[in-house]
């Protein structure tokens, strides 16, 4: 992933050196258990630990990999060379009874767990920003739109509460996904524990903060990784939905809200007046990238027999890219929400622009309550609404001219159908239910 869409904290989890260190942590934890079992010199374990602390593995391992064509073998060669003189017995039992995927999958579980932790913190920060904005605009009236057309009055705070609820679901998915991928395996070439008992695996994984895969093959089953990735893709989809809403609200003819535009920022090389929603547009594009990796991750589930390697190339690209991108997206959108410019006057002006048509259902229901059948009431209200669409005359005035309306309403009674207050009564209840108020 290019640095433009990356943050150092998340990139650090996926860098080659970090991956090798995780692999070495697994090898060290396993070797310590074997050393205890075989009564190897405890002092030699200290030599292994110092190797982990020293770092600087990447260059040496990559050079060895050029020769061997195998990343785990290359790591083992580097470690074995470093241990042979000062810790010969430990070097002798390095990787004892393991297969490459024992190390790779367990190290990957540690990376995914750490990445999930950052993404969870990102969502928590974004939800806090959304709560603040929703609370501030709990009673900021605007037009609710369906199919892009005015439907009924709503508030900007209620719209944001919907973002908050979806965000909470994504936060919960990420927590579940972190749990789903926090499984390692140290069960040998086909998962049969042919050379050591399962309790050894359990003890080592517990030290690493992981659970043992209940039934493994040569690998941890890839449905776990697909579940993790689905959580990332759903989170990206949520950010895309929220960002798309802001893009629509920032259109010149709407201009009810606007993403932050910094002092000195330029919107166009040709048109000095431009204030474009580039942050939100960028987020929509990044969501497409994450979503594009979802199908290959699902296809990784169907490996041959006890394992093939077709999943490896997909995961080496998709998992780091998606985690890094989503981390960037969540951080960026949190800044957008925190700095969002909201224009309540424009919201109210646009709400009024449809000449009161947004109250049509309230008139309909009042007619039903006054004894008309639903179809008769609908026809009366629609007839008036179509006249308002055609002439732009206020809907209430058009209705008052209809004898069917005058027969059932006083002027004051009809006016009450056009009052915003009833539309806001439940909004505060919804916001309280969502934990915003």
SSE blueprint and pairings:
Layout: H1 8-14, H2 16-38, H3 42-54, H4 58-68, H5 71-83, H6 88-92, H7 100-136, E1 141-146, E2 149-155, H8 156-181, E3 183-184, H9 198-208, E4 211-212, H10 223-249, E5 257-258, H11 278-299, H12 310-338, E6 341-342, H13 344-352, H14 360-369, H15 374-391, H16 395-400, H17 403-406, H18 411-416, H19 421-433
Parallel strand pairs: 3-4
Antiparallel strand pairs: 1-2, 5-6
Helix pairs in contact: 1-7, 2-3, 2-7, 2-9, 4-5, 7-8, 7-12, 8-10, 10-11, 10-12, 11-12, 14-15
CATH fold descriptor of the largest domain: Fumarase C, Chain A, domain 2
- Structural class call reads mainly alpha
How many domains? The number is 3
**Biggest sheet statistics:** 2 strands, antiparallel
CATH superfamily of the largest domain: Fumarase/aspartase (Central domain)
- What portion of residues belong to β-strands? under 5%
Unreliable runs: none
* Count of discrete alpha- or pi-helical segments spanning 4 or more residues: 19
CATH class of the largest domain reads Mainly Alpha
Q: What share of the residues lie within helices? A: 55-70%
Question: How widely separated are the two ends?
Answer: 39 Å
Shape: elongated
For the record, the CATH architecture of the largest domain stands as Up-down Bundle
Radius of gyration: 30 Å
The side-by-side strand order for the widest beta sheet comes to 1-2
Strand tally, please? Answer: 6
Report the order of strands and helices: HHHHHHHEEHEHEHEHHEHHHHHHH
- Indicate the mean pLDDT: 96
Oligomeric status of the shown chains?
single chain
């Amino acid at each position: 992933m290019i640095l433009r869409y990356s943050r150092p904290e998340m990139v650090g989890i996926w860098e080659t050196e970090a991956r090798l260190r995780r692999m070495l942590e697994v090898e060290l934890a396993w070797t310590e258990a074997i050393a205890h079992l075989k009564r190897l010199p405890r002092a030699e374990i200290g030599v292994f630990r110092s190797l982990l602390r020293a770092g600087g593995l990447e260059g040496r391992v990559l050079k060895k990999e050029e020769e061997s064509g195998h990343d785990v073998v290359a790591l083992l060669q580097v470690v074995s060379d470093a241990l042979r003189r000062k810790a010969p017995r430990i070097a002798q039992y390095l990787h004892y009874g393991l297969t490459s995927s024992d190390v790779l999958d367990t190290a990957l579980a540690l990376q995914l767990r750490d990445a999930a932790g950052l993404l969870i913190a990102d969502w928590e920060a974004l939800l806090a920003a959304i709560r603040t904005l929703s609370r501030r605009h709990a009673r900021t009236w605007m037009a609710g739109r369906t199919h892009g057309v005015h439907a009924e009055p709503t508030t900007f705070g209620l719209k944001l509460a919907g973002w908050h609820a979806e965000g909470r679901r994504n936060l919960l998915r990420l927590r579940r996904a972190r749990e789903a991928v926090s499984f390692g395996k140290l069960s040998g070439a086909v998962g049969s524990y042919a050379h050591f008992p399962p309790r050894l695996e359990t003890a080592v994984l517990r030290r690493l903060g992981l659970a043992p895969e209940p039934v493994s093959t040569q690998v941890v089953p890839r449905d776990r990784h697909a579940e993790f990735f689905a959580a990332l893709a759903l989170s990206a989809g949520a950010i895309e939905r929220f960002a798309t809403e802001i893009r629509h609200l920032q259109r010149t003819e709407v201009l009810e809200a606007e993403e932050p535009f910094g002092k000195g920022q330029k919107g166009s090389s040709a048109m000095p007046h431009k204030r474009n929603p580039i942050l939100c547009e960028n987020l929509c594009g990044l969501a497409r990238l994450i979503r594009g990796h979802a199908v290959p991750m699902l296809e990784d589930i169907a490996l041959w027999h006890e394992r093939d390697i077709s999943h490896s190339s997909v995961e080496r690209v998709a998992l780091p890219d998606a985690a890094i991108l989503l981390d960037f997206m969540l951080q960026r959108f949190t800044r957008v929400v925190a700095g969002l410019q909201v224009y309540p006057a424009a919201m109210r002006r646009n709400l009024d622009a449809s000449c009161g048509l947004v109250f049509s259902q309230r008139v309909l229901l009042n007619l039903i309550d006054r004894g008309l059948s639903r179809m008769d009431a609908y026809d009366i209200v629609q007839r008036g609404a179509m006249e308002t669409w055609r002439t732009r005359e206020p809907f209430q005035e058009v209705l008052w001219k209809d004898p069917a309306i005058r027969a059932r309403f006083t002027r004051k009674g009809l006016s009450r159908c056009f009052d915003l207050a009833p539309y806001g009564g439940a909004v505060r209840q919804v916001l309280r239910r969502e934990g915003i108020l």
